[in-house]
């Protein structure tokens, strides 16, 4: 059936057409009345047809719904097929492109574009990747196995009953883990790469797993000990005698179980790597943990007790813990160690050693923040040194601990404890920062000392500062410099390393002493520069004068002569002399001190220290040779420099005093030694002392009085002898030896003048010299002898002349002179010249 027919049948019925067709049908079948007999039959047929039609209509409706469903399904299938066709078309194009790519991939890499690879090369790359993945899988399996063994090891320990002893059979799983790690390490041993042979990271990881497993095992066993210690009020002071029996039993059982575990670890060689400062006796390690927690709470948080300017607080805290628990450790813990065959371990020392990492960790965290603050850094280091000293006084040392040997450092024996301070001092950057801060502080102190208004005033005697064995006055600057040097010594003397001590000596003390010596030398240079050309040429001509400028304004001309003449000039020289002698004497005392003797011995014996010291010119040349037989001291060269300053100061003082007195004597000598033709005194004429002599004698008395009040007896005696010897020689030459004839009256006057000189000195210095007249008169002996010779007459003079000009030998001549004059200081030739001068 065509589609047009179907649409026609589906359309609405046409009534008019139906009527026309019915009329045509009746006309055709019933043309006359006679034909109506067959109407019933036709009617029946019509009913039958109607029934069939109704059935067909029903079937039509069913068919219509079926057709509609089929149409919908057909449309859906058509759309699906269209999409499939499109996808297939795209797939065809994609396959075509892949076919082209595969075709190109199968081509030689030589003919491909740069950067591309062939299919074969890609397959090889995939194979390598697959091998890598297989290796990763093997790594993962090894790690999985190690972790499983680690977990089983811990579970095996946890499964033990609290009363069960710990033996090697208690850690079989851990031993299996050990063997597994060892096998892996042997299999991997080393691997070659571009950088050479290196340990595989897998082996390192397995070793860390092994170590961590043992730590967990130890932690599992340690829990009962922590609980028992808490019952004993640990870490407070433990009153073990008043604890209950159950508490003591629980503590001792837990303590001994940890010792059993440590013994097992030694048998099976448990992993410890390189022993760290935290490793020790297991139960003591556990007892340190509560102390560390309390320390962290107080000194590593935000509490007021955590102050960078109060390091003594946490040092004192650890020191108190070690002190407070000593009785408990020595009387209880030590017995437990002894019962476990640990007699070689000192419980208190081992416990104290395990406390030290708490402080070292604190210092490692704190010191970097203190480097910009030298005062806080220095304070922290001093507190660390005091802590070390306090522990040593308590009796702490590494002997009797598990860490009884340490690497040898310069200046520290192999078996010695370097101290907590070694954490700071052992790091060059931190030590250099401290040394630099100390040097700046010392330099500032030195400049304050030199620049002080009273720096060069003679200091009052202070018993605490007097140099041992010497009653020596000095200036404030010298006294303060000595105190500064000793303060520096006190700061670095506790240092355990001789290298550090040497650096302090060479960087701080030696430069300060050199600077002070240079300052004294420069002051003498300035004094000589001002005095040599001015004072000697025109003595007393320099002073302060007022002048007028052209604009009628006043001016003040400061002339420096008054600073270099008279008592004031000698006073300045005495200050330089006393300062240099004081520091010189102090250095001699320091050089004999045990601290500096030990340091000097180490410098000479150790090549490294000797080479370091040879770069400094202020140390004694013997540092170039390790001469153990020499008896020099570390300050020998500096002492020689200060001795030179002292000698130079004395020379300038002698020169200054003698020059002023000689200059003052010129008018007197000019008057008394010049011939006067108009006068012919008789031998028995009286004489009077010249008024021109009073000024030089008064000047000498003034100088001697000042030196007596200022200088100590040894220096005063030396200067007095030198001044008087030169002055006496000057008078001897000018008054007697190198002048014309001398009359009897002049002889008596000369002798009287000499007596006056001696009496002036005796009146001034007799008490200072302990009442010894000979010490006062000895330097005048040549002059007094000459004065006696020019005053003798008669038989005495004849006897001396016969002995001098006769043929007797020297010994007989000296006996005659001593018999007549009382001394024989002049030579025979000088006596003869004096006798010839006398008329």
From TrEMBL:
GO cellular component terms, semicolon-separated: Dsl1/NZR complex
Highest taxon above the source species: Eukaryota
PROSITE patterns cross-referenced by the UniProt entry: RINT1_TIP20
GO biological process: endoplasmic reticulum to Golgi vesicle-mediated transport; regulation of ER to Golgi vesicle-mediated transport; retrograde vesicle-mediated transport, Golgi to endoplasmic reticulum
Record-linked InterPro entries: EXOC6PINT-1/Sec15/Tip20_C_dom2, RINT1_Tip20, Tip20p_domB
Segment forming the signal sequence: none
Protein name: RINT-1 family protein
Biological source species: Lentinula lateritia
